[in-house]
Design goal:
By secondary structure, the protein is mainly α. The chain has helices at 2-14, 22-26, 34-51, 62-81, 87-118. The chain has two domains: 1-27, no CATH class; 33-118, Up-down Bundle (Monooxygenase). The longest helix has 32 residues, at 87-118. It holds the Pfam family MPC.
């Protein structure tokens, strides 16, 4: 059902895409595919990671940040070996990895500082 609605929406929009935007529209990783929409919505994870930079370090989950960093870097690599190469997917996953790796480093530095104070 949802794929039929999606196809109908794309077919409707197809008529209104200007000629200059046709190469993007028809691209194998363009708006007609999941390769376009998945990275677009995944930027929400990057924005959440940036928002977490203001969060008190005690409230940052090292497991969650570590898992997101690992998957970000793994999927960055994957996005360069699939066909078609998906640079949008690469960039969003790289930023997911970087923002969450930063959080992991923040937590580790905080824990080391607490250990040094306790000794």
């Amino acid at each position: 059902m949802s794929s039929a609605v999606y196809r109908a929406t794309i077919n409707f929009a197809d008529r209104y895409v200007p000629q200059k935007l046709r190469p993007l529209w028809e691209h194998p990783a363009g708006p007609k595919t999941v390769f376009f929409w998945s990275p677009l919505f995944k930027w929400g994870l990057v924005l959440a990671g940036i928002g977490d930079m203001n969060r008190p370090v005690e409230k940052v989950s090292i497991r969650q940040s570590g898992a997101l960093a690992a998957t970000g870097f793994i999927w960055s690599r994957y996005s360069l070996v699939i066909i078609p190469k998906n640079w949008s997917l690469f960039s969003v996953n790289l930023f997911v990895g970087l923002t969450n790796a930063y959080q992991v480093v923040r937590v580790l530095l905080h824990k080391n500082k607490e250990k040094a104070i306790a000794q």
